[in-house]
Amino acid sequence: MKKITLVLLVLVSFFSTLNAQHSVAREWNDELLEAIRNDFARPTVHARNLFHSSVLMYDAWAIFDTQAETVFLGKTFGGYNCVFNGIANPSNVADARHEIISYAMLRLLNHRFANSPGANETLPAFSTLFNSYGYDDTFVSTDYSSGSYAALGNYMAEQMIAFGQQDGSREDTGYDNAYYNPVNPPMLLDTYEDTNDLNDPNRWQPLNFLSFVDQSGNPAPHPNFTPEFLSPEWGSVKAYCLKTQDLQILNNGFDCYVYNDPGPPVFIQNSNEDGIDDPYKWHFALVASWSSQLDPSDPTEIDISPGALGNYDLANYPQTFAEYQAFYDFNNGGDAGSGHPINPSTNAPYAPQMVKRADYARVLAEFWADGPDSETPPGHWFTLMNYVSDHPDVVKKLGGTGPLLSDLEWDVKCYLTLGGAMHDSAVNIWGLKGYYDYLRPISAIRYMAGKGQSTDQALPSYDPHGLPLIPGKIELIEIGDPLAGGSNENVGKIKIYAWKGPDFISDPTTDVAGVDWIIGTHWWPYQRASFVTPPFAGYLSGHSTFSRAAAETLTQLTGDPFFPGGMGTFDIAQDNYLVFEKGPSQAFTLQWATYRDASDQTSLSRIWGGIHPPIDDIKGRIIGEKIGIDAFNLSLTYFNGTLSNSENDISQDLKIFPVPFKDILNISHQLNETIYIQLVSFDGKRVTEPIALGQNDQLNLETLSSGIYFAQFIDQNNNILGVKKLIKN
């Protein structure tokens, strides 16, 4: 059975009914998400696809709005100048927007998914939706000067495609790597070696597979395959809301573009008998410890309701090693969240829900993973946004205030903001991944297990790089141990009490690997044997950053930190959810009070899944929150028409009122230079000659026809210094 993806996250248990009809933006976004599920699993690439498509759809809406500014069309964005000479006002604005969006999306998505492994399915699906609207897919002109909205859509897609060829993503060469090379040799997963020798135990290690299947279920092109590091140079991709003052260009063998540098992760210590006191060893030993909690025969139960979990204040997240030790429960799993006492929607306490810890942890590792059959983490949160939008309790007011928005306006504004947050999370985090190049738990745990133990020099197999000895969790194999071997060849080696791994599963519909003592160099993440770990460095966690950025974005967009009704839910069926082993052993419901709670649960899932140690997590959450808020605030300037398009734009230094105006337009400024104003119609035609402005002026424009105009402020050499949108009643 394919894993149920987040496309169904709240479909069953959130809502009794869905909207019968969606906006054209929503319909194209649904097609894009399905295309991502059928493509290679590339979170960076698809965060970019989601953002670029969102920009086009938003701009198609904004050009006919009386207040909003476009992001790309008619602007210089990311160093690319997308020229726009204006177009005639439509007789039917809704129809014009629909047509522009559809042509733009068809052209962009056909280009982006032309070489997808699912192209035979995806491209006809795009055409089916497009043709269902009655449009002509053979019309490819980009000349919109005749007033053709179809041509304008084609033109916008053409320009976005051209922008994408110079935005730093290396799209033209298949998103390949120009400079990065791993310092460590690949781990050979088809053999269990006594040691996993690393040139540098602080750096990322590739994995070699006899049979590899990516996170979307696509098999490798050949056996004996070693996936390359995905997007280590992505930090140079042109961003949306990331700030240049937060950017550093650092060098790790190549120039790394690093935003919001959190500082390095923890590195392994060479001191004597440091054991569990070495932060590196503690972080990775915690991953091994949590792996012991994945056995459904363990009767331990926990309350997984919002009354017991979540509600942790970001301001109190750990910074020091001691704070990390206090925040994460090394022995029992989970974090220091205390839960919510009351559901604000019902004013009643959340009902407890007692569930086996092992079932909860296994389901989380699967539920928040990237596949198979996944739209990747950025797409997960678009899916969640869509179903929140469908909820009958959601009032479509931006930030929970102001006028009620149409479905189209709500969708394009939400998509732009969420898309910008997801795109910039990828730029930020993969820039850090490429620079710090930090290893994954499978490499660290097997490396340290191969070295021995680092706790006591008087005991066998001592090595400063060994695992810490922890009774009941990490121990030495002794004579008489079932793992000792026929000739006691394993005596003195490290054993770990952990999930036994995919070798113990023949039929995933009937088998459970369970937990037992295993040789330390045989440790596995709780993942498929054909996938094991994402092919890129761990620090920082993409899941933690994407999820926290999305949670903040949804909180800002809806004006409410809580899910509609005070709780989001997803029902898990007994023995019919997990992919690579049978389970869970009981039915239960995942529950979240707030978007942030869901985000924090995502982060914990990656530790239980063996993908990240805690050091990868917290700083990703912190950066994600910043990106989510910054994306919303930047989007507001586009929505409100208050964006300063460049450092030299003087329009923010002028006051123009009233807007809308009837006959008289007042203009004031405190600039110490001579500036001129000229008005340009919506279709790009100049309707007034340049007029020199004093510091306080009134323009009598009673002869001007009602409509939308742009006030261009120019210098004596006709250089445009700023632009303001005007409305004449």
**Helicity, in percent?**
25-40%
| Mean pLDDT across every amino acid position | 92
Identify the strand order in the major beta sheet.
17-16-19-20
CATH class of the domain at 651-728: Mainly Beta
At the third CATH level, what is the topology name of the domain at 651-728? Immunoglobulin-like
Low-confidence stretches: 1-19
Oligomer: single chain
CATH superfamily of the domain at 651-728: Immunoglobulins
Distance between the termini: 60 Å
- β-strand number: 20
Classify the secondary structure makeup into a structural class.
alpha+beta
How many helix segments?
14
Explain what you see:
The chain has about 725 residues and is of the alpha+beta class. It has a domain of about 80 residues: Immunoglobulin-like. Helix 1 packs antiparallel against helix 2, helix 1 packs parallel to helix 3 and helix 12 runs parallel beside helix 14. The longest helix is centred in the middle third of the chain and has 30 residues.
Task: Please specify the SSE layout and strand pairing.
Blueprint: H1 24-37, H2 43-62, E1 76-77, E2 80-81, H3 93-112, H4 119-132, H5 149-164, E3 187-188, E4 207-208, E5 247-251, E6 255-259, H6 279-291, E7 301-303, H7 321-327, E8 354-356, H8 357-367, H9 376-390, H10 407-436, H11 441-451, E9 474-476, E10 494-499, E11 515-519, H12 542-558, E12 568-572, E13 588-592, H13 595-608, H14 618-640, E14 654-657, E15 664-669, E16 675-681, E17 691-693, E18 696-700, E19 707-714, E20 720-728
Parallel strand pairs: 3-4
Antiparallel strand pairs: 1-2, 5-6, 7-8, 9-10, 10-11, 12-13, 14-15, 15-18, 16-17, 16-19, 19-20
